[in-house]
Amino acid sequence: MYKTPCGRFTGALGLGLKQKNLTRAATGHLVRLCRDGPAQKITFQRLKILKRQYVASSGQFWQRAKPQHEPPSVLEDRDDAIIQQVQQIPATKPPVLEKEPEAVRAARIEARQWKELKVEFSELPGIYARLSKIKLTALVVTTAAAGYAMAPVPFDPMCFLLASLGTGLSSCMANSINQYFEVPFDSNMNRTKNRPLVRGQISPLHAVSFALACGVPGVSLLTLAVNPLTGLLGALNIVLYTCCYTPLKRLSITNTWVGAVVGAIPPVMGWTAATGSLDPGALLLGGFLYCWQFPHFNALSWNLREDYSRGGYRMMSVTHPALCRTVALRHSLGLVGLSAVAPAVGVTTWTFPLISLPINLYITHLSFRFYRHGDRTNARKLFFCSLWHLPMLLLLALTCKKIKVEPDGGVASITPPVAMRD
Amino acid sequence: MSLTITTAVLKRSPCSRYSLRSLRCWHSANETQKQKPREQKIQFSPSSSSKHDWIGPPDRLSNLRPIIYHIPEQETPLERQLRHLRQETEDWNHAFWTNQNVAFSQEKEDYILLQLKAKGLSERDETGRKRTLNSEEMAVFYKDFLDKNFQKHASYNKEWYRRNFRITLLMARVALQNTLRTLMGKGRGKEEGRTSGRSTT
Prior knowledge:
- Chain B: Belongs to the COA8 family.
- Chain B: It comes from Denticeps clupeoides.
- The structure holds 2 protein chains of 2 kinds.
- Chain A is mainly α.
- Helices cover about 70% and strands about 0% of the residues of chain A.
- Chain A has a two-stranded antiparallel sheet.
- By secondary structure, chain B is mainly alpha-helical.
- Chain B has one domain.
- Chain B is built from 5 helices and 4 strands; from the N terminus they run αββββαααα.
- Chain B has helices at about 1-10, 75-120, 135-150, 150-185, 190-195; strands spanning about 15-20, 55, 65-70, 70.
- A two-stranded antiparallel ribbon of chain B has the order 1-4.
- Classes of the chains: A mainly alpha, B mainly alpha.
């Protein structure tokens, strides 16, 4: 028998409602059949949205026109069948279809099911990793570690580890709070629609608790075990990211500049963890990260203009496209300039500007092409270049690190064993 | 006869109650909420033994996932307040994003048609496929859309942050209340999912 939810109601109420339900269901069907125009439009729009989702979710950055195989499933959804916990697999698939990665297909099917909001403890590590944007956190910790390594002091492994851990925890908190704030916006953008809070894998309270559980020990660790300056910078970074950058994303294009500062602070933190003071060298390293952010982010946002516009994000690429390209080029040139200044500040030797010139010129060249042509291909090239450019630059800086010569003739170098051998 | 069966079944097994919203297909006439913004009725009904909320696939228009809230046997006023707030926020969010997405798609289509007409081109090319504009031309539309909706977005933002905070605070209070009740031994049945702060409700 057609088991309706009202069957659960007690007594006469349930009976009365059941009868009403049958009549209403019948009229509902009729109404649906007569309602053609708007439903068709909705289907078309939905096709567009689904097509975009499918293309973007195929895991590849570029967009290919793929045969639309969504129509059968959309039509199925419009049927009034009771969907309990049956897998919604489209009834027909066109024969010519590129082999979809299994993970993508499974994710797509899983995304259409109703799920019980029960926390599975085995899934929690994965959920936390995605909540804290673990890959981004790892990059942030790497830049902080680079800042520490570049500082002209003997390397202390304990301090290094504590500083890295503290920075990582602070970054986890910042990222978690960011996701907590942005749930409805993330739901509407292809890039972010599989985040844990969007999917309801944990509750907002849980996410905030996790954030606090990371951030409070992280900042405390930095303040007490490293030094107060580093702790202050860590706390400042969290506040900047969550309370300035995140809301500003929807209000003004200045969010990009704030975001660049947020990215620049970790290497400064690494340096201050080592030396305990804000030296020009720290600011130089921060300057590298600051300048790098613009070609990186502007190129990334260039190809996401539609999503940003629909989601209400105010990014330079949407509202001020010319400025977007100019700023990317300007800051690529800034990287060249900063590399030249590095020896003057005493951070690296004179070989650094020379050996970093090729990669700096290359990214500037791509920025220039992006500036001139402003098309998707150039934006993509610039973005991918920025991904390897930064690690390479930091590595080169590390190899050219200026080794301080002590007054007594000894050499203070990076690793204590070498110094002890002298 | 069905009445007898219904009451007999219910007497045997306590059923979990789910928010009326999920059983919307036959709402009674004295429903106080105004015309629901969502066209699609929620067809899913969780099993009666489940004691958790359920989350569904993203909505077609708003891309937000609907939640069916579980109503515990002895719901406290605080829990009811939380549930209502979450429900209301969800509906409000859904209405906003539906309007936003539909308006965006509609205006985008209109803009494309307008541009094509200005160029003297038909909507479809020789092969029957719809013509599209290049990204530079579309960028004008994207900028225009953002500028036009700035005030709306700003006020939505503020309201969303406010609601999010309130919901989280309420959740914290509910979790605290439940923990205290369990610690004092006045727990409500054997709902282990509710006692710790790691509950998803």
